[in-house]
Amino acid sequence: MRETPSILPLRLEGVGYEAGGRRLLADVHLEVARSARIAVVGPNGAGKSLTLRIAHGLIAPSAGRVAWSGPAASAARAGRGHAMVFQRPVLLRRSARANLTHALALHGVARGERRRRADDALARFGLASLAGAPARVLSGGEQQRLAMARAWALSPELIFLDEPTAPLDPAATRGVEDVIRTFQAEGVATVITTHDLAQARRLAEEIVLMHRGRVVEQGPADCFFTRPQSPEGRAFVAGELLW
Amino acid sequence: MSDSAFAAAFGLVLARDPALVEIVVLSLRVTLSAVVIACAIGLPLGAGLALARFPGRGAVIVLVNALMGLPPVVAGLVLYIVLSRSGPLGDLGLLFTPTAMILAQAVLILPIVTALTRQTVEDLWEEYREQLISLGSSRGRAIPTLLWDARFSLTTAVLAGFGRASAEVGAVLIVGGNIAGYTRTMTTAIALETSRGDLALALGLGIVLLAITLALNAGAYGSAQLGARLAGRGADA
What we know:
The structure holds 2 protein chains of 2 kinds. Chain A has helices spanning 48-56, 72-76, 96-106, 111-124, 140-153, 170-185, 197-203, 221-226, 231-237; strands spanning 10-19, 22-32, 37-41, 63-67, 82-85, 158-162, 189-194, 206-211, 214-220. By secondary structure, chain A is of the alpha/beta class. Chain A has one domain: Rossmann fold. The mean pLDDT of chain A is 91. Chain B is an all-alpha fold. Chain B has one domain: MetI-like (MetI-like fold, Orthogonal Bundle), CATH 1.10.3720.10. Chain B contains 10 helices and no strands. Chain B has helices at 3-14, 18-51, 57-67, 72-83, 98-134, 139-149, 151-167, 170-176, 186-196, 199-230. In chain B, helix 2 crosses helix 6 (139-149) and helix 2 crosses helix 7 (151-167). Chain B is globular, with a radius of gyration of 20 Å. The model of chain B has no long low-confidence stretch (mean pLDDT 91). The A-B interface holds A 53, 56-58, 77-80, 83-84, 86, 90, 92-94, 102-103, 106-107, 133-138, 150, 154 and B 127-128, 130-131, 133-137, 141, 145, 148-149, 152, 230-233.
């Protein structure tokens, strides 16, 4: 049982971002409830990854605010109740297990408990036999699963997934999607960015369509795929929305 | 240069001439101590400089980079003034001792270790930044992580420091005084014996110095390659 108050729902309120005189995000509103399963879709350059980075606290927004519930100060920092898995996992130059114990150490987990929790996470995602292997020699799919095991080991309420399967083959993609389903089955909220509409359909209950830095449509996945409301939504579902 | 000088030099090395052994041992003691001190300060300092953001940071980086080219005789002269009887640290009585020589070499190689560490860690920080922040790491907490993960690349910084220290003659000559049996190192002995015309001893010392440098570099390179392979990095350490 979680002892600390929930940090969800998370609300992005009118979030905007400018860099080099270019407006990359404008007036983005998004709510992530407990156990939410959201897919943020859209073409390249739509602002999907930037939105996740701002929500996760890696980048400060130029406008608007990111509002967490509960003790806001503790949730505002990345790594406190919410984790992120990147498209290209950045693993430390050490063993798979040491990557997890390092993350647990950052979270103040007692030294004696780190190894047990790391091994639990590795076993949970089918990586137990690779615990002592150098993380950097694992296959792409294994590396991504290790990155997800690292996120899971920190017991987050919400995980941001930034195109986690983009560089992977179909088999590795299936493995990563199984891990995401494990998160979801345990009640962890997931926000995933993807280009793959089939994947969004498989993993999300709610779709957020972004185009040119704005949210152009947002709603239940079934409605989005059967009756998209916006011209951009209709074009995207038909595979015609280009930058 | 006569062949007989080379033959005599090899003879001294193979016979492990006591005078030669004494000089080699002192040289290694001074140089390795200086490297340890410079690394203890320079590695965290370089990493801190890579991650810290403060006004004037660019100027500090330029200064540290420039100090890599600090002329040894200038460093030796400044340290001589500081350690001389009328200097601020004169009471310590360190002038013309191995400790003064260790200090001089540490001063010379500290900028090398710091500057190379700063560059290496800054490059690695670019790669790790988002992930480490995402995991909840502060910049300060990232320093040991980055130093550990850059350990194979940082071997080069340590070797560069060792190379500079072991080849150095001007600073240790000024603050050590080249006293036989006490502060005479390989490089100062080579300079002295050459001026005296004892080329055999000078050459013998030169051979030992080159052999030690080569062996240390080969050992460090091999260790870094092996370690990098074990840690799963395509090794160009």
